[in-house]
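During the first year of the project, the team set up a workflow for recording each protein of interest as an amino acid sequence followed immediately by a discrete structure-token representation. This format lets reviewers and collaborators read both layers of information side by side without switching files. As required by the reporting guidelines, we include two representative entries from the current panel. The first entry is reproduced here exactly as it appears in our internal archive.
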Amino acid sequence: MKNKKLSLFVAVVFVSLVCVSALQASTFTDASLKGTYAFWDTADVQLNRSNACAIVGTATFDGAGHVSLRSTQNVGGLIVQKPIISGTYAVSANGTAAMTFLVTGDTMKFALALNSIGSNGVAGGFYFTGTGSAGIHTAAERGFALLTGSASFTKASLKGSYAFQIKLQPLSDSDDTEITGVMTFNGAGSVSVAYTQNKNGVFLSGSTAGSYSIAANGIGSAIIHPNGSAVNLTIVASASGKQVYLLGADASGNVELGVATHQ
């Protein structure tokens, strides 16, 4: 009987230690954000749809409270590559975080929510909301960031078929357009696209082709020609090339933002 009680006691202690270890493992710190994260960001600007903004880029964290941001914006149909800016961040134990940038007198503030920590002790991604990066204080932003997972990208990092969805935010309220389909990268600079467009409830399917390039930091560009008109895309790779964020501009000045995921 004593041996059974002792065995039961040991088992309870073991389970308790395992639970405590699991709880400890889920505690977040500044070190939980380390490395480069690709992100997409969309901003709704009150009372002025012509200033609607979509953003893609990368945020690089040092694991000790410092972050640098590299971004490309489409503001009202105008594509702008922004200078690299630096800021600070602080992570709470529950996985929430605050991030701040000071740019020419404008304060950009973001609230973050980190997802699960990997075996390397780093969060795989995070959701965020913020204000200020569109240069307009009434902008309310939201987005998602994913660890890039690669130290260096090449054209070969994007290869195979990617399911995608793109939202077109027109400069007026007259059009509402969503596009979904599959884009196929050949790993050498060519891309083909099969798509279905839903514009105000009217469906239009088609296909097109184009080219792409990508720098070592995972940021690149692509050009395709749906419906005979050129669409220029800024692309940002993440998850070792398994996911791509898309920022576009067309001849009509629409703000286009989308995500493509490897099939």
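The second entry, processed by the same pipeline in the following quarter, appears below.
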Amino acid sequence: MIQLPLAAVGAGIALVLSPLAVAEKPAAVTVAGKGVLTICRDWILFRSCKSYDKIDLPPRVAVGDKLILTFGSNPKDYLFHVVEIRQKGQGCLLLTEESKGHEDRERVEVPRCEPAAKPAAEPQ
């Protein structure tokens, strides 16, 4: 008798978690608007981060892209290599290798983005 309720609980947990397992990170996104670049520096005892808003982004960004971002009142160019894209509500986060998978480190926050359609295969 204990096996049936236990099996039902296990099935319920699997059903609840299945959308999380199916949701995969987009390989590319279409971007609307500007982003916020956050650059962080690690010091010996602490880390400091500075955000720069109104960063122009290309209309489509994919994992592996190397974006040259221009920012600041005295314009500077920054090479941002996209290694991961995370969907966040209507927006997304673009992360670099320096982010080490953490969302509170180096990143570009995009307020509006959607997963991009996969490009059609070229005829052979």
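For the second entry, the following points were noted during internal review. The chain is about 15% helix and 45% strand. The first strand starts at residue 28 and ends at 32. Both points are flagged for discussion at the upcoming steering committee meeting.
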